[in-house]
Amino acid sequence: MTFALETPLAEAVGEKLAKSLARAFEMQTVGDLVSHYPRRYAKRGDLTPILDLPVGQPATIVAEVQSVQSRPMRNRRGTLLEVVIGDGVGEMSLTFFGQAWRERELRPGVRGVFSGKVGEYRGELQFSHPDYQLFEDELAARESAEEYAERPLPFYPATSTLPTWKIQKIIGEVLDGLGPVTDPLTEEMRREHKAMGAREALEKIHRPRADADVHRARHTLRLHEALVMQTALLQQRWFVRAMATTPRRAADGGLLSRFDAVLPFDLTPDQEAVGARIASDLAAEAPMNRLVQGEVGSGKTLVALRAMLQVAESGGQCALIAPTEVLAGQHLRSITKMLGPDLAAELMPTLLTGQMSTPERRKASLRVASGQARIVVGTHALLSDKTTFADLGFVVVDEQHRFGVEQRETLRAKGSNPHVLVLTATPIPRTVAMTVFGDLDVSTIRTMPAGRAGISTFVAPIAEKPGWFGRVWERAAEEVAKGHQVFVVCAAIDAEAEGAAAVEEGDLDEVPADVAAERQGPRFGVEQVASTLSRQPSTKDLRIQTLHGRMPGDEKDQIMRAFARGDIDMVVATTVIEVGVDVPNASTMIILDADRFGVSQLHQLRGRVGRGGVPGLCLLVTEALEGTPARERVEAVAGTLDGFALAEVDLELRGEGDVLGGAQSGSRSSLRLLRVIKDASLIEKARTLAESILERDPTLAAHPGLATILDARLGTEERAALRKN
After folding, report:
1. Quick one: 88 exposed, middle or buried, by C-beta within 10 A (0-12, 13-18, 19+)?
2. 57 lies in which domain range?
3. Contact at 8 Å (CB) between 270 and 450?
4. CA 555 → CA 353, 377, 531, 561, distances in Å?
5. Which end of the chain has fewer CB atoms at under 10 Å, N or C?
6. Do both 416 and 477 map to the same domain?
7. Do both 229 and 261 map to the same domain?
8. Nearest 5°: phi and psi at 576?
9. Rounded to the nearest 5°, which phi and psi values hold at 117?
10. With 90 as the cut, is the pLDDT of residue 27 above it?
11. pLDDT at 282 over 90
């Protein structure tokens, strides 16, 4: 039987196996299977003798099972399986938790290839849950050992029931029956970019005979991904620009002019430049689709407000959607204050959130539906079917990474092709902007408003210097004594409960120290820290309040208002205060378990202080040891205030997220091989190539392969997702 990429997987591998692959990897078609690429290869020279294995590094060895022992785990149900393997000179152990079934295949005398990260437990080398492939017989073992030492051996993303060797076998069988594959590149493009044919690239990436096969196949498939993605994004940009919308022009002496006339400070050069660009976009007959990125505190909200005033002059309504109740409430207060009493009375800024009482929400909804409220600020409540607008002309999405594309489109659909402005305080590298936001125009605010006192950041490594922990709280008390206020951020609400849950995931007495550390929950929780600080000599007399996501919205809002008024000295919170909370008198940000936060999160949290004329202090408290990736991440944040530099670091650690779909995290990306930092130059080439193709051939009539793949890969859901960015 000959398969095509669109052939249902069940027809190629059988119903039972297809269900397993769908459950484990969301595969539905032959195309999904053959694009499940190896995550790495055992290359020539990787087959290291056991005695030379480097601790902490991934390695691949050929060895023989010496002994197998299983025993019950002490602190949880299940079995610990310990397998000793040797290569004739040295020995090491393999450990498997709760996988007693492996004892049936890992029998003494069996040989194979074993791969994993080298650990050390009680002075002995160890692989914990390694990948392995066993040889079928002794002759094959000798031949395969030599072959695998010379040829790249693929290792796939796998599960306990679908190990890498089984996936390799399934893909090999399907490749044997795979027919011609549609190629997005013409023959001329393949020659110019040194690419293989699409069918050959799939063959070589799964069954390479040499390292060169892997490199060229990866290059080809990355180019395919980049070209399809950039072509889709450029088509979407054209699609948006072809829409018609109501131009929103500013008038002399209108709302915007009146606002600017009483503004008590000058705009920064970047605010002026970006504001002028937005003003021009709003006056056009095609809808604006612009992203504004800028550091925390760079004045993005002011730029958005000036744009709202321009839209409101024509009677249009503006909707600002924020990710949290706290931030939405603060945005409303900030906007109302900036407008002043006269403009506020005219525009009637209105808050609409899910936590409002029924009478409050009904009253707010009527203001919005009637058009009385020309500025509406809210959370997901704005997306409700019950929320309607009289004339929604402008949508502002704050911290867009908190919203999926479906949510953004739901709000935009409440108007007639309204202008859209996306704000982010997470600086975005150029290649990410070109990839993730390739259908948006991007503006950047780099200059900061005058009068900022700056922030000093320090790492407090309490595992190495325990005495520093007490000094952190003394330093906080000193800031309060100066009349300032302090944020304390924890990674958990209740660390004891979360730590207990983490211990349940594995028998920590049975695993190496580095693995155990990864499984343990956060050390510090809001409840424990607040309780401890109430007894600490340096902090027991401070006015301390807790804040976290399980609290009702009105209670969170009351606490933040009290903190902003200066009625609270210290707020112990989760990351509910990460985005947008503005308390100019707050001077100090203490982040506990700092290694548990991402680079971007740490930078955002740090930006909550040093916002007024008060110098900011950020203390990153961590138990991560020097030289570990977690510690390096924290040190990177302490080393620079440049969010654009940190964005590069964050991207490498976090992944790109789902570029062409609704997922926002980096764990499931529609990019299989392409990486937006490492492949920056390739993406730029692909964008240039896509621009050239569409300029000469907008319908892709002369590029049927590319058109077919776009239609196949970007079905209704992805096309809709692109329109929603």
Report:
1. exposed
2. 40-155
3. no
4. 14, 19, 20, 10
5. N
6. no
7. no
8. -60, -20
9. -90, 130
10. yes
11. yes
| Angle (nearest 5°) at CA 367 between 361 and 371 | 145
Dig out the tokens for 588 from the structure.
Answer: 């100090």
Planar angle of CA 366, 367, 368, nearest 5 degrees? 90
The residue to which tokens 């309060």 are assigned: 480
Report the sign of the C-alpha dihedral through residues 467, 468, 473, 477, in that order. Answer: positive
Q: Are residues 532 and 616 in the same domain?
A: yes
360-383: per-residue pLDDT in tens? 999 999 999 999 999 999 988 898
For the chain, the farthest-separated pair of C-alpha atoms sits apart, in whole angstroms, at: 90
Query: Helix-strand-coil percent breakdown of the chain, rounded to 5?
Result: 45, 20, 35
Q: Does the residue 669 lie in any domain?
A: no
Report pLDDT for 438.
Answer: 67
pLDDT of residue 37: 95
Q: In this structure, are residues 130 and 17 in contact, taking their beta carbons and an 8 Å threshold?
A: no
Across the strands, what pairs with 459? 620
Residue 575 shares a structural domain with residue 632:
yes
Any idea which residue has 């958990």 for tokens?
492
Q: Quick one: which of 209, 81, 82, 228 has its CA closest to 715?
A: 228
Half-sphere exposure of 531 (CA within 13 A, CB side): 9
Which tokens in the block code for residue 139? 């002759």
Is the confidence at residue 317, as pLDDT, over 70?
A: yes
The position carrying tokens 């040891």 is 625
Q: For residues 538-550, give the mean pLDDT.
A: 91
Q: Is the dihedral of CA 565, 571, 576, 578 positive or negative?
A: positive
The two three-digit tokens of residue 610, written as one number: 């040093």
> Is residue 459 domain-shared with residue 441, that is, in the same domain?
no
The model's confidence at residue 408, banded by pLDDT at 50, 70 and 90, is: low
DSSP 702: T
Residue-wise pLDDT tens digits, 159-202: 868 878 789 999 999 999 999 999 999 999 999 999 999 999 99
Helix residue ranges per DSSP H, 417-525: 430-436, 467-481, 495-504, 513-519
Nearest-5° Cα angle at 604, 497 to 722: 100
Q: Which pLDDT score is estimated for 640?
A: 87
Length of the chain: 725
- Integer angstrom CA distances of residue 305 from 23, 310, 316: 47, 9, 14
The helix or strand, by DSSP H or E, that contains position 59, with its residue range, turns out to be: strand 58-72
Instruction: Give pLDDT, residue 56.
Output: 85
| Residue 381 per-residue DSSP state | G
Which segments within 491-624 are labelled E, that is strand? 544-547, 570-573, 586-591, 616-622
Q: What percent of the chain has pLDDT over 70?
A: 85
- Find the range with the poorest average confidence among 213-217, 290-294, 324-328, 388-392: 324-328
The pair phi, psi for residue 153, each rounded to 5°, is -110, 115
Whether residue 712 lies inside any domain: the answer is no
What is the pLDDT confidence band of residue 520, given thresholds at 50, 70 and 90?
Answer: low
